Amino acid sequence: MPSVSVIVPVRNESRSIEHTLRLLLTQDFPRDDFEVIVADGVSTDDTVLIVRRLQSEFPNLKLVFNSEKLASSGRNTGIRHATKDVVVIVDGHCHVPDRDYLQKLSAAFATSGADCLGRPQPLDVESPTRFQEAVSAARSSRLGHNPDSDIYSNEAKFVPPQSTAVAYSRRVFHTIGLFDQEFDACEDVEFNERVHAAGLTCYFTPEVKIVYEPRGDFSALFYQLGRYGKGRAKLAFKHPKSLSLPALVPPLWTVWALGAGPLGLVVPYLGWLWLASLALYAAVLLGAGAVLGRGKPLAVGARIPMVFVAIHFGFAWGFGKELVAQVRKRWRTMSRYPHPTGVS
């Protein structure tokens, strides 16, 4: 079976990095057949000290430095130092559910023959707050996550790689290159767009799921979705065919929700339509909270509608911000190099 390089891009992960690394380094997998490479993005906390301490205990733990500080450059730095047959990306704040993770990952490559693997990424944490429970419920629903994504699925199958691929054979990098360092969010989706365009295959298996910790408050969730929205907008400019209706709905809805009200003062029927749409949106969120909160404490269900607000408007904020930045960038480029108007 193929050997495995685990790439862990981090920056200021001292709170969780030891937990994640110990779960990886104590895997039931031959030590000579795997390595864990931490790519540190100039951490200002104790992340590097923790990794160096663990290196004295685990000889297959490597520490490399990512001076660019970006998630994309961290991935690339780790990949350049990787020596094994396949590469899997694991964040520094994840929970690896069992000690057979690497065994299952290597076996999945061997049996499927796929170029890359996708995995579920459920949201969970020990002793979650009510808000975190609400985030987990909302994000696993079609209203809180792109319906084209399979990351909350549990069915083993070949899938398009865009939203799920996290582990790659070396053939992938030889074919399409590394991650685009113009991206600091959605760098994985952009890379997987190129994987798909190259005709490479992706096998999705719940055997290699990784558990992520949901954000702990409204502002952190809003900011997280803002980064996703920003990345999706940048992705749309580089790969226009990647732009889908689900990605457009939050920004279009936000423009309507924030802009149609003032116009309703001038066009009365527009004002009534605006009020009706807000009422419908509120009803949908309340209904979703009731359905997703069934069997959970009332405090969880009550928070779900506000979680959806953070998801939708956070994504829209990031998308709109990047859209403006991209338009300005192209306008400056056009102004710097004007098209000739004639020949003398």
Helix and strand arrangement:
Layout: E1 4-10, H1 17-25, E2 34-40, H2 47-55, E3 61-65, H3 71-81, E4 86-89, E5 94-95, H4 101-112, E6 116-118, H5 130-139, E7 157-158, E8 165-169, H6 170-176, H7 187-197, E9 202-204, E10 211-212, H8 218-238, H9 245-264, H10 268-292, H11 298-336
Parallel strand pairs: 1-2, 1-4, 2-3, 6-9
Antiparallel strand pairs: 4-8, 5-10, 6-8, 7-9
Helix pairs in contact: 5-11, 8-11, 9-10, 9-11, 10-11
Describe this entry's structure for a reader.
- This protein is of the alpha/beta class and 344 residues long.
- It has two domains: 4-218, Spore Coat Polysaccharide Biosynthesis Protein SpsA, Chain A; 220-336, no CATH class.
- Helix content is 51%, strand content 12%.
- The chain is built from eleven helices and ten strands.
- The chain has helices spanning 17-25, 47-55, 71-81, 101-112, 130-139, 170-176, 187-197, 218-238, 245-264, 268-292, 298-336; strands spanning 4-10, 34-40, 61-65, 86-89, 94-95, 116-118, 157-158, 165-169, 202-204, 211-212.
- The strands form two sheets. An eight-stranded mixed β-sheet has the order 3-2-1-4-8-6-9-7, with helices on both faces. It has a two-stranded antiparallel ribbon with strand order 5-10.
- Helix 1 links the parallel strand 1 and strand 2 (34-40).
- Helix 8 (218-238) runs parallel beside helix 11.
- The longest helix is centred in the last third of the chain and has 39 residues, at 298-336.
- The termini are far apart.
- The model has no long low-confidence stretch (mean pLDDT 94).
